[in-house]
């Protein structure tokens, strides 16, 4: 557990972003407070500055693809303990599809997410944004139990789609 100086709450360590400059390797404010602060800061910036930054970023990444890939690899190693080459190998193993909904990467505007257990940090597979969010809510057993109870109270069930196995295609 760690105390967030911003909201004053004690939270689990996974709720804090990494920060190399701190002795415990974690920032002093939780991810939620950090997100609020950064969003407020970005909103306060002049629009011209944001457009100029985005333009420079896009131009640089196109002109220096090796540097861009190197930065992405470093980010993957730092955040997930997985190299970009390992990510690409897993992506190929998953047939360039989300491990849950099986949609192809070409159907998404962003890359697939590295799915991991937030308690153990163990990597699982690659998921689209939507499946990653859904799975995050399902990992909270208390939320899942309350959600099922809520739907049962209205005599409703979850609209389940049958699959012929965990990583294969939909039936019917």
Calculate the mean pLDDT score and round it.
Answer: 84
Q: Based on CA inertia axes, which overall geometry fits?
A: globular
CATH architecture descriptor name of the largest domain: 3-Layer(aba) Sandwich
Q: Which topology of the largest domain does CATH recognise? A: His-Me finger endonuclease fold
Task: Give structural attributes.
172 residues; mainly alpha; 2 domains; two-stranded antiparallel sheet; 6 helices; His-Me finger endonuclease fold
Give a structural overview.
With 172 residues, the protein is mainly α. It folds into two domains: 1-44, no CATH class; 82-172, His-Me finger endonucleases (His-Me finger endonuclease fold, 3-Layer(aba) Sandwich), CATH 3.40.1800.10. The chain contains six helices and four strands; from the N terminus they run E-E-H-H-H-H-E-E-H-H. The strands form two sheets. Strands 1-2 form a two-stranded antiparallel sheet. The N and C termini lie far apart (47 Å).
Short description:
With 172 residues, the chain is mainly alpha-helical. The protein is 47% helix and 8% strand.
Blueprint (SSEs and pairs):
Layout: E1 2-3, E2 10-11, H1 31-44, H2 47-63, H3 65-80, H4 84-93, E3 113-116, E4 123-127, H5 129-138, H6 141-153
Antiparallel strand pairs: 1-2, 3-4
